[in-house]
Design goal:
The structure holds two protein chains of two kinds. By secondary structure, chain A is α+β, with helices and mostly antiparallel strands. Chain A has one domain: Cytochrome b5-like heme/steroid binding domain (Flavocytochrome B2, Chain A, domain 1, Roll). In chain A, the strands form two sheets. A four-stranded mixed sheet of chain A has the order 1-6-3-2. A two-stranded antiparallel sheet of chain A has the order 4-5. By secondary structure, chain B is mainly alpha-helical. Chain B has one domain: Up-down Bundle (Ferritin), CATH 1.20.1260. Helices cover 67% and strands 0% of the residues of chain B. Chain B is globular and about 55 Å long. Classes of the chains: A alpha+beta, B mainly alpha. Chains A and B meet through loops of A and α2 and α5 of B.
Chain lengths: 78, 183
Amino acid sequence: MRKLTRSELRQYDGKEGRPAYVAYQGKVYDVSSSFLWRSGRHQASHEAGYDLTEALERAPHGAELLQKFPIVGELVEE
Amino acid sequence: MGRVAREMVERAGINVNELVELLVKNASAELTTYYYYTILRCNLIGLDGETVKEIAEVARIEDRNHFEALVPRIYELGGELPRDMKDFHDVSGCPPAYLPQRIEKVEDILQVLVEAERCAVRQYTHICNMTVGKDHRTYDLALAILHEEVEHESWFSEFLGEGPSGHFMRRGETSPFVSKFLK
């Protein structure tokens, strides 16, 4: 499994054709195929390239919606 | 734009630009759902399909009503709808409710319908949570829409055999909760 730091994750912002990755509880998900992550932006509040573990606690949906996307890596400390 | 109306919401601590963006996303979800439900309704045929057609039609009309009710609030808060319909489609807060591959399977169409309603329930719950006690008018509107979306979800869920909705069919006019915003 590929290991990504937070600064490496930041490069996968879904903009200008780049893949959109987000992290949740140490796993990195590729959400590029999601209609709701077009251009790396989600519901006016969230950007791809970030760890969304805390944000998901406040979201109106659970982690099950994220878990249908492929895991492409593991988030590690710098 | 309602200058003071917007100012009051800002002063209450809400990021109005973010709120307006969410309202536009939801307006798009409602209008595009109205379109996609038109196609789904046309394909609800046969004994099973005809059984579901009436509630799909009520949900379709009420989703259009939700679009109509959201638009004034977007402009009051200083927002606007995208000039291009294609852009409007693509900012939707919910995925397109496309006709499924197996159009002869009413269960597959019901699954599309229930997922669309579940997305809407999440969207309006989020707006209610964001505006409660701060932006009374948007909260009132989002809550009215939420009431109807919750009912839509439970109707389709009931047809899928997930459990009873506990509801009767609409009696009288559509949009019993949202109609006050349409007058």
